[in-house]
Specification:
The protein contains 10 helices and 19 strands. By secondary structure, it is an alpha+beta fold. It has 2 domains: 184 residues, Aminotransferase class 4, branched-chain amino acid transferase, N-terminal domain (D-amino Acid Aminotransferase, Chain A, domain 1, 2-Layer Sandwich), CATH 3.30.470; 172 residues, D-amino Acid Aminotransferase, Chain A, domain 2, CATH 3.20.10.10. Strands 1, 2, 3, 4, 5, 6, 7, 8, 9 and 19 form a 10-stranded mixed β-sheet that branches. The protein has a 6-stranded mixed barrel with strand order 10-11-12-13-16-17, surrounded by 4 helices. Strand 11 and strand 12 form a beta hairpin. Helix 5 packs across helix 6. The longest helix has 20 residues. The radius of gyration is 23 Å and the shape is globular. The two termini are 21 Å apart. The protein binds pyridoxal-5'-phosphate. Pyridoxal-5'-phosphate binds next to strand 13 and helix 8.
């Protein structure tokens, strides 16, 4: 601050976040050092790796999200330039966690949130606003409370080794969110404008982005129908909001970092013509009791099967991948196709694009069935099985309990596991260890 600047209470209040950030950054320099050491170690390991990170994206291998087509009677769209900010007072600011390793998942929230209301009767989307984190007030008839008119996204902000904060392929999340909005009778919006508002929220709460490469700030954009009427109909009033939560690792794993799964064909997560391919809250509540059943059997996740042939669809809240030796004797990475039963995961899409670009092994989107898994295991051709998603990047699988039998998967026994290479490549992009168009810097 220059001496010319008149310092009054208003200036101090307006700049409190910068001051706090400055003080905390000085205090946290120690943990930054450990990040730099990790970066150095990573670079040394990289020189031994078979796979190079390609910093360009070959568009032949990526699915750019399609622009959303809004309903004719949607009304006004919101713009980030209309964003209004009401900062929390110093007394409202919460202490930030000291130990990033003990964060767990989604238990703590930052000081602010983003809110954008939609009211058809007022012309459409209203002005976006950032406010202190606060409870929502709604009518007890609000559609979200009765018909689960709700959808959400899961994204993360990562503090890079260069100190910059990045989010990963946010255009993909926005596209997925709008597709779910269309299916739920909720208003659509311009994803780019939402990301600009979100970037401002992240800048305000930036000190909550953990200073390590083992934790991150989870971003939970949510869209709910809030009309105070009981008809099962499109929402004429809605709330699009986002909260932020510093997170460590999502899943409980076994001692070697791998997960064990319950595969019970009597439970189904999604079905043809349903909404298994959309991130709607209504898909998740019915999985909770099955997850409890898995836990009671000492298993960490549920492997969701579908159909007479027991197709593998998803694992917990992740897409599933298998690395194996195919009938032609070639190494191949396979994942189920986007046939409506599967969430079009952004991690899934990135893994497919990356490994196709590497060209080191075959890559295929095709059905995987349990009989196929059993046969490949018996023949020693199944090399790795892993889940993939934003929460954990990749999660290796070492055991499946299927029809009362334990199948042991040798994922953790491979000398140079493919899932590790994938994890390293993706986290290097997320934490800015390599410059890549998928890692979008917040400024
Ligand atoms: C059911 C389900 N499958 C897969 C995923 C992985 O998707 P993404 O890679 O976009 O996080 C998620 C998490 O969002 C999920 O909830």
């Amino acid at each position: 601050m220059t001496t010319k600047m008149a310092i009054n209470a208003k200036d101090i209040f307006r700049n409190q976040h910068r001051l706090i950030r400055f003080i905390e950054q000085s205090i946290r320099l120690c943990s930054n050092q450990s990040l730099k050491a990790a970066q150095k170690q990573q670079q040394q390991q990289k020189s031994n790796a078979d796979f190079e990170i390609t910093t360009s994206i070959n568009t032949q291998y990526t699915n750019a999200p399609e622009p959303i087509k809004h309903d004719k009677d949607l009304g006004d769209l919101f713009k980030a330039s209309q964003l209004q900010v009401r900062l929390a007072s110093p007394q409202q600011l919460q202490p930030k966690p000291d130990n990033d390793e003990e964060l767990g998942f989604g238990k703590l929230f930052t000081d602010h949130m983003l809110k954008i209301y939609y009211h058809k009767s007022l012309g459409g989307w209203q002005k976006p606003e950032i406010t202190p984190l606060e409870n929502l007030v709604m009518h007890p008839a609000a559609k979200v409370l009765h018909y689960a008119v709700e959808l959400f996204e899961g994204m993360k902000a990562y503090r890079g080794v260069d100190g910059k904060i990045r989010i990963f392929r946010p255009d993909m999340n926005m596209s997925r969110m709008n597709l779910a909005a269309q299916r739920s009778g909720l208003p659509t919006f311009e994803g780019k404008e939402f990301i600009k508002c979100l970037s401002r929220l992240l800048t305000i709460d930036s000190e909550w982005v953990p200073h390590t490469d083992t934790a991150s700030l989870y971003i939970r954009p949510t869209l709910i129908g809030i009309d105070p009427t009981l008809g099962v109909a499109s929402s004429d009033s809605a709330l699009l909001y986002s909260i932020l939560s510093p997170v460590g690792s999502y899943f409980k794993t076994g001692s070697n970092g791998a997960v064990s799964l319950l595969a019970d064909p009597s439970y189904v997560r999604a079905w043809p013509g349903g909404v298994g391919n959309r991130k709607m809250g209504s898909n998740y509540a019915p999985t909770i009791n099955v997850q409890k059943e898995a836990a009671a059997k000492g298993l960490q996740q549920v492997l969701w099967l579908y159909g007479e042939d027991h197709q593998l669809t998803e694992v917990g809240t992740m897409n599933i991948f298998m690395f194996y030796v195919n009938d032609q004797g070639e190494q191949e990475l396979i994942t189920p196709p986007l046939n409506g039963l599967i969430l079009p995961g952004i991690t899934r899409d990135s893994i497919l694009a990356m490994s196709r670009q590497w060209g080191k092994f075959k890559v295929r989107e095709d059905l995987i069935t349990m009989p196929m898994v059993c046969d490949l295991l018996n023949q020693g051709r199944l090399l790795e099985l892993f889940g993939a998603g934003t929460a954990c990047v990749v999660s290796p699988i070492n055991r499946i309990n299927y029809l009362g039998q334990d199948l042991y998967i040798p994922t953790m026994e491979q000398e140079k596991p493919v899932h590790e290479l994938i994890r390293e490549t993706l986290t290097d992009i997320q934490y800015g260890k390599v410059d890549h168009p998928w890692g979008v810097v917040i400024d």
